[in-house]
Structure formats: C-alpha cells, structure tokens
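User: Last request for today: this protein with adenosine-5'-triphosphate, please.
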Amino acid sequence: MDNPKVFGIVALKGGVGKTTTVANLGAALAQEFNKKVLIVDANFSTPHLGLHVGLVNPNYTLHQIMSDKHSVYESIYQHSLGFHIIPGQLAPVGLDYNKLKEKIEPLKEIYDVILIDSSPSLNHEMAAAMGASDEILVVSSPDYPTLSSTLHAVKIAKESGTPIRGIILNKVHKKRFELCSKDVSEASNVKVLAVIPDDIKVLSALSKMVPIVSFSPSNEVSHSYKKLAGSLIGVNYKRPIFGIKRKNGGEIETYD
Ligand SMILES: Nc1ncnc2c1ncn2[C@@H]1O[C@H](COP(=O)(O)OP(=O)(O)OP(=O)(O)O)[C@@H](O)[C@H]1O
Ligand SMILES: [Mg+2]
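Assistant: Here's the final one, the structure of the complex with adenosine-5'-triphosphate:
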C-alpha cells in the first residue's frame, strides 16, 4: 500500500482521549510539519471535535454530507492553526454510516493526512470509521478496565481488516500501580506508539478550545503529540532546546 493517509482514532471506552488526540495531531501536523491535514468528526452520536478547536454550532457538518445535503467540499472549515476540519452535529437521523468511506476517499487527493475521530460505542459508527481508514490508532489509558476495552477494540479492528498502526497510551501518571506500555503491548500484541502524560493543562487548553500543542507548545503532552505526529508521516521530531545553562561551573543542563 502507498503511505497510509487516513487514520481512524478509535477506542471502545468513552473519555480516553480520542478527540483530544485528533485535535492535537491535526494541529501538530499542520503547524510543526507543515502538512495539509483534515480532521473529521465521525463520532455521529456525540460529536465534540469542533468544541475542542473553537468551532461551535457549525452550519455545515459531516451529517449533511452523509445525507447528501451538501458536498464534502462545502463542509470543510479552515482553522487558523492551519488544519482543516469537517465538524459533526448532534441529533443524527438514520444515516447510512457505510457511506463514510466513499465521502472521504476523494479527499485523499487533496490532503497529506486525514484523521477520523470516532464514537466509543460498539456500533456501525465505529465500524464506519475503521472501514474508511487506511490504518487504525487505538487510544487507551493505563488501567485494567480500559485495557479490557482496548483488547476488545483491537480484536474488532483486526476483524475489520484495516491494519492497526498502534496504541496511544494516554493519561499516564507514571505511577507504579499503573500499567506500563510493555504490559499493554504484550497483552494486546500491538505496539504502543506513544505515551502521553496526564496533565491538567490539557483541560486548561480545552477550556480555551485550543489544542494543547498550540496552547502550551513546550508542555510534555505537546512534545509527545508532536513526536507521534512525526512518526505517522515518517519524520523524526526533534524536541527543541530553548535554553542551555551551565550548572555548578561544569555540568550542562538543558531545559525547555
Ligand atoms: N493527557 C490528558 N491529560 C489530562 N486530561 C486529558 C488528557 N487527554 C484527554 N484529557 C481530557 O479527558 C477528557 C476526555 O477527552 P476526550 O474528549 O478527548 O475523550 P474521547 O475519547 O474523545 O471521549 P468520547 O468517547 O466521549 O468521545 C477531556 O476533558 C480531555 O480534556
Ligand atoms: Mg470524543
């Protein structure tokens, strides 16, 4: 296959960070790597991607594309951070979710990367996101209930036939009682691509409806998302060093 372009971000558990991941990867790919990137809210039941990036009550949505009211091109918004977005809307009405793939397909000509946010429910919405994607990213967090859902999501993803790129381990507190990335990769047989710290700054960024990679670029979460964004397009993210100071007259300490 050519380079994968469409990534479905999935999880079978709500609130693990799918939408946060889509918004931040979108912003990182556009800003840090200068890529043409589209983020799509295919969480039809509870669409919140717009609210993560300051797009409130949009007039044009994926729902309208899916019900053939508007063309896919009419419903693309350009964000000031450089990425494009197709938002969702509440109150779905009998959509044929299988159409998602055919609606997204022509956009592969235009964009370097397309990221699809999805529903946490084991239903046709999730299947549609998986079916429309070239590769799947499964978001998890380091606790047993989420791991159990993650293993189920991995099984469904494997059955869908769309390759799994890897797992994103989010909301990590770096505590001994938590599962580590080795535990998760061994249990699932899937590589853990990124470990994203839990940080209240993510909530602070959300309150301003700005992805943390833009809200607080030197935050650890932001570096983790930028590194992951780079790995998706085969580029090594080099963390910038903003200052070097000499400590005790000899030892060099770097910080950013
Ligand atoms: N690394 C993190 N550190 C702290 N808070 C986080 C982190 N990632 C996500 N959150 C917060 O967790 C909450 C849920 O995140 P998000 O909406 O991205 O999850 P989701 O998987 O898309 O949820 P849903 O299944 O409802 O669509 C949000 O308030 C978000 O700001
Ligand atoms: Mg979400």
